[in-house]
Amino acid sequence: MKLFDFNKYFPDEATCRRAFKEMRDKEGVVCQHCGSHDVVWLERKQQYQCKHCRHRTTLRSGTVMHGSKLPFMYWFIAMHLLTATKKSISAAELQRQLGHKRYQPIWELLHKLRSVMGKRDDKYTLKGCIELDEGFFSTEIPQEKKDEKLKAGAGSQRKSKVLVIAESTPAEQVPKKGQKPKSVGHIKMIVIPNAKAATIDALASKNIEKDSRLTTDDHASHIHFKDMFTEHQSQVIDPKDIGKVLPWVHIAIGNAKTLFADMYHGVKPEFLQEYLNEFCYKFNRRYFGEDLFDRLVMIAASYRTNFEHRTYRKAA
Ligand SMILES: [Zn+2]
Description:
Bound molecules: zinc ion
Oligomer: single chain
Radius of gyration: 22 Å
């Protein structure tokens, strides 16, 4: 949605609030006490009431705005900027745009939206031809590891490991120069504590359909895939061939790294997953165009965030 249209459709707090309520009504409000879908809106109280147990639910309760006192309009502006921009928006920039005094609530608002984006994508499993690999993202050294001697390479405290999975169908014809050898569907990027087979196996079986065909390198953490999936091609990959064998996981990793380097001054490892959620969410909906905003409002109205209030220390 263009800025002009956004301002036209959502000019004030009352409009944003009404639009949010319409989306909640459309998605269906569930009583948090008894689970009934039978609720009525009390206009004077501005709350839903369960017809069975009379439990009341506020408009924000059970949504991404659960517990937030920020204006609905802040959330709508943030959702607009997150979906209208190709890249993203930093908390500092959003704070400036809103003219809000404190940084922390705005920073939390963005992370809460990223968290529900992740919850939505968690609902989907990938299928068909699949690329899978582990990537390493530069992150700040966690507080508790600051005194340790720095390790080099993949085990470095400055790197966070990420499992990257992409639906990637080989082209039917031999690709011409400049064309990708495979076309991409949905992707997933999941921060992992280690690259042990047990860790990777659990995430692969949760996120990939059994009848899929996997392509990976010959890393020891992939040894069980041949029993878990219809097909597993494991091969030694010369670094110069990575773009042919696993093109999309590496394009995704490269694009995400470039974006994070442009947007944020150092990512803390504990928040990396939220940034990846946003990256994957937008990648997976790259053809949604104008619908992207409405979909995000729908998700904001349907999911409660997992992001917990944390005292903010330094920009992340
Ligand atoms: Zn109830």
